């Protein structure tokens, strides 16, 4: 077990049931229509599974893959609200394979990141998924950043990060000829990959092992089933009904949720604890014009501010040759608000009334105001970038894509930087495991986190 996990109580589930196994061969699964599960041959309104996983991002798919490989006799389904997989946090991040340097020694995050990075590299090699181990420099540009940089270096050594070195100005220029800094940590183990491609490979592994994926299935309710497609002498075999917005449902014995930006709402649907609330933070990227790509060779990061979980605006090469600059961190006024003016009244009201966001603003007003200012004025972000590469000008950059981070926050305005699993007791809670907060770097750590989730599923559901 993982003793440092955070658990939140809730009143929700019922008694355990028995398992039914079996799956269709790959040839038959391939013949199924796009709206149908790959196993079972029934429409989603009558499908039943031993376990349903809600969420088709990298964490849900990694967990589904690990679970079915460990328990091939179980029927397992993944439901995803979009028509494609891994479209949100998975498909809208910088693609960095983090080394594990940032996290508190002996913490779960440090262990999972170091382990997860090794597993991602191994998996990509096995599957032929392209990646680039281009390394990273964490650069101190001010004298007062050097003690923090040295402390970060010591932390990385304690975490077992491979190949770390403290380097001076001369070596910085050798590795990044256009970068200026007083001192840097050289992290050669850092890489880049397309995490959406990795997630889709997880999905293929899951389906090849007999798993079912139902897309365009937006969960509207989780409740006790009114009737079951099959019964045993002990009563209902599939007592949980997961219903979507179209009036369809799947029935199952147990539910695992990896719902990212909607993890709090999905928890509430099952009658479990509404806290912690998710507060969406948008991260905007700039793109360096192709003719200026020679300015950056690998990842270049600032020395992070330990008060916040954001790593600061940085330089990230992509596999297609482009260079991303960013992201910033500003409040998104919609959970999937990838544009500055995207707005949802419901989302904003929940931020104001249910979360501790107002308290966070009062505690860190100047930081937030500065981030908003940089988001509005391109030249302000470029000024920050020029601390590292003075040759960059405003005319060298274009506005690029954006992502939204699902940041869990408590009612006191504290950003939760730990794993939060939630279930409960009662009609549904004994049969549900909510992954409420899987903090960055969740993509890097996805295979390692999935093992942790499967261990928790096994213990909780007595598999």
Please write out the topology.
Blueprint: E1 6-8, E2 11-12, H1 26-30, E3 47-54, H2 58-70, E4 76-79, E5 96-97, H3 108-127, E6 131-132, E7 136-140, H4 146-158, E8 165-168, H5 169-175, E9 183-187, E10 191-193, H6 195-208, E11 212-214, E12 219-224, E13 231-232, E14 235-236, E15 240-244, E16 249-257, H7 263-269, E17 277-288, E18 299-302, E19 314-317, E20 323-326, E21 330-331, H8 345-353, H9 357-363, H10 365-376, H11 378-386, E22 397-409, E23 420-422, E24 425-428, E25 432-437, H12 446-461
Parallel strand pairs: 1-23, 3-4, 3-16, 4-11, 7-18, 16-25
Antiparallel strand pairs: 5-10, 6-10, 7-9, 8-9, 12-15, 13-14, 15-16, 17-20, 17-21, 17-22, 19-20, 23-25
Helix pairs in contact: 2-6, 2-12, 3-12, 10-11
Written account of the structure:
The chain is of the alpha/beta class. It is built from 12 helices and 25 strands. It is 29% helix and 25% strand. The strands form 5 sheets. Strands 1, 3, 4, 11, 12, 15, 16, 23 and 25 form a 9-stranded mixed beta sheet that branches. Strands 17, 19, 20, 21 and 22 form a 5-stranded antiparallel beta sheet that branches. Strands 8-9-7-18 form a 4-stranded mixed beta sheet. The model is unreliable at 1-45 and 230-235 (pLDDT under 50).
């Amino acid at each position: 077990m993982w003793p440092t996990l955070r658990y939140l109580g809730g009143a929700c589930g019922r008694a355990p049931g028995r398992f039914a196994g079996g799956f269709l061969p790959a040839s038959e699964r391939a013949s199924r229509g796009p709206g149908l599960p790959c196993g079972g041959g029934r429409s989603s309104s009558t499908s039943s599974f031993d376990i349903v996983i809600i969420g088709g991002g990298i964490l849900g798919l990694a967990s589904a893959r690990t679970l079915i490989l460990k328990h091939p006799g179980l029927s397992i389904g993944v439901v995803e609200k979009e028509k494609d997989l891994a479209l949100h946090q998975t498909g809208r991040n910088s693609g960095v394979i983090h080394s594990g340097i940032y996290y508190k020694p002996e913490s779960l995050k440090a262990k999972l990141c170091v382990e997860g990075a090794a597993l991602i590299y191994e998996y990509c090699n096995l599957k032929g998924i392209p990646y680039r181990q281009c390394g990273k420099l964490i650069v101190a540009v001010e004298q007062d950043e050097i003690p923090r940089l040295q402390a970060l270096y010591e932390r990385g050594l304690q975490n077992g990060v491979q190949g770390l070195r403290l380097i001076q100005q001369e070596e910085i220029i050798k590795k990044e000829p256009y970068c200026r800094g007083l001192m840097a940590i050289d992290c050669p183990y850092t890489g880049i990959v397309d995490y959406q491609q990795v997630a889709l490979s997880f999905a293929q592994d899951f389906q090849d092992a007999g798993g079912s994926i139902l897309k365009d299935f937006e969960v509207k309710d989780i409740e006790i089933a009114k009737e079951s497609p099959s019964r045993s002498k002990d009563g209902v075999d599939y007592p949980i009904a997961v219903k979507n917005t179209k009036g369809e449902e799947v029935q199952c014995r147990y539910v695992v949720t990896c719902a990212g930006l909607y993890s709090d709402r999905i928890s509430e649907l099952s009658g479990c604890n509404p806290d912690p609330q998710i507060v969406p933070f948008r991260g905007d990227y700039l793109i360096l014009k192709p003719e200026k790509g020679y300015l950056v060779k690998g990842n270049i990061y600032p020395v992070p501010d330990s008060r916040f979980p954001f790593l600061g605006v940085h330089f990230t090469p992509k596999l297609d040759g482009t260079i991303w600059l960013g992201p910033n961190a500003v409040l998104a006024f919609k959970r999937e608000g990838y544009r500055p003016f995207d707005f949802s009244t419901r989302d904003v009201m929940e931020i104001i009334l249910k979360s501790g966001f107002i308290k966070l603003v009062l505690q860190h007003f100047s930081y937030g105001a500065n981030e908003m200012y940089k988001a509005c004025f391109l030249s302000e972000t470029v000024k920050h970038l020029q601390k590292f590469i003075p040759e960059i000008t405003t005319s060298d950059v274009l506005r690029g894509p954006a992502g939204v981070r699902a940041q869990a926050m408590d009612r006191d305005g504290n950003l939760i930087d730990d794993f939060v699993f939630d279930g409960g007791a009662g009609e549904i809670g004994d049969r549900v495991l909510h992954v409420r907060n899987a903090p960055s770097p969740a993509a890097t750590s996805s295979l390692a986190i999935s093992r942790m989730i499967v261990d928790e599923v096994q213990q909780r559901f007595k598999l």
